[in-house]
Amino acid sequence: MAGKKKEASLQASVTNQEQWEEVLATKGLTVVDVYQQWCGPCRAVVSLLRKIKNELADDLLHFATAEADSIDALERYRGKCEPTFLFYGGGELVAVLRGANAPLLQRIIVEELAKEKLVLEQGGERKAVKDDCLVDDEKRDEDKMSQQSENEESIIVPASKSYTIAIIKPDAVAHGKANELIMKIQDAGFEILAQEERTLTEVEARDFYQHKAEEACFEDLVQFMSSGPSHILVLSQVEGSDNVVPTWREFIGPADIEEARREKPQSLRAQYGTQTLFNAVHGSEDIDQASRELAFFFPNFRTASATEQDGEEERVERTLALIRPDVARENREEILAQIHKSGFTVALQKEVMLTEEQVRQFYFQHVEEDYFPLLLRSMTSGPVLALALAGAGAVHIWKNILGPSDVNRAKEESPDCLRAQFAVENEPINQLHGSESHEEAEREISFFFPKQQTLAVIKPDAMEEHKEKILEEISGSGFSVTQLKETVLSREMAEEFYREHREKPFFKQLVEFMCQGPCMMLILTKENAVEEWRAIMGPADPDQAKATSPNSLRARFASDILHNSVHGSSNEQQAEEKIHFIFGDICSDTELTGDGETNTTVSAKGQDNSADENTGMSRSSTEETSEGDPHN
């Protein structure tokens, strides 16, 4: 109880419109943690706020929590699970931060408090900002659909123009500077060919900055770049400039803020950056990096070929690559190195063990061919490595790198091609695959990396202390939360939810545990959602989780095999059944498929796929369903 009183005295609790207006009238800087009734305030930052309050000891600094569900002014924040902090001075919004990023939160508090004191002491102008979250929902959705449509329509860049990727980083976005920066970019003569707001997952940030992996600041950079939304821009050069890359890098200034302020005081980083890590903007280092970064963020972007003779266009696109089992076992890293050396970005990657049925489904047009038994044996002899490669003209370039599909012909006509280099002795089936066309590539990628839904549950033992961290992990791992609800299960609901374990000795204990307090039910959507969520959870036994998956949720938060923090569906069929049980009939763009067996079979979409011995096939979850485990 004493702890709660301290927390209440630190943060004023705002639960209605009248209290909200009183908080906005408070003199000084007020930091508001906006929360939803179902999840409560962000407890993860309370100790940090108390530390800041004690260290600064400033009467002009105030903290508050505000329940969006009951405050009209915060209506636009309802139904969102990401921690959000609003900074108010003189009743005006001066900064916004999304995500419980402690270093960034502390820095913004110190900076905005100093600005507010200057306004109060010297009568300076207070710079108010607008939060994108307050934009009308319908207009925001329309804008997003419009932007997606623009991307899908494949904007064409003439061969006479160069391009670069620019990123307005999370620190500048959190301070409400995105629109201001975009105006300055346009005023300087840069042409914005495409743009989108996007929050990078940790995995995406690591992939994007893999060239900096050996630098000491790499982990901090990854955490920072995945801490909140960025604005991604494709820029073309200003008039009279042959290459936009050096022009843009000159405009943004050196990465080191002190150097930028000393040598390029008018540069964007000198004006908007605060330190080397928080330097506001990013620019591609050279044209090759610009091309890779373009493929990373805008895989459907189209550019005219620099070598075109007849007006044909080279596409920045994705293609499916398969490394078949015999070669995947021995030469995986060597082939991946050649893929990266060729300038491809690996947009998606997974290793899968295919069933005979899956091979037959994908190669349905060839099951009567003489070579099919060899193909079937090859494709089921071990794990297949599936990759979605992105790059300019990816389909055509990858096919050329692979060489002829016939192994003997590849050795004779193109001995340096990958199929010749990695041919297996006495094996007539080639060991690598590439899509035949852009359309086939998208079908095949969807086949291997389909969007899925899974049911996730934050169990009663984790709700009090670990809910916020688990929600952050979900968001940071790239899942979309399609639906969620917080509920206390009745005995009847718990028994029905775990009905498959009714005859097991632990059933009664499991039901009693699940009824003892609130839990949170979530529908998660992502490519390969079922197995990715199970990987994030880790093994059901926390001791095993600590030994084999020390970064998993259960390794970090579970206390024993019963109180193991989280639940996830074992396969797609179970996910569909449990989602229906908890949420009823819901509309979804994601088709849930599966046969309910240990290895989930994903049926092929688009059965008119053109397939030959060069073709890949669908994926299968290799994770076993623990039928005797109450903690899936």
UniProtKB/TrEMBL annotation:
GO cellular component, one term: ruffle
Native source organism of the sequence: Cottoperca gobio
Domain of life: Eukaryota
Alphabetized Gene3D superfamilies for the sequence: Glutaredoxin, Nucleoside diphosphate kinase-like domain
Protein name (record): Nucleoside diphosphate kinase B
Every Thioredoxin domain range: 1-115
Annotated family: Belongs to the NDK family.
Residue ranges, compositional bias (Polar residues): 596-620
GO function terms (MF aspect): metal ion binding; nucleoside diphosphate kinase activity
Job of this protein: Major role in the synthesis of nucleoside triphosphates other than ATP.
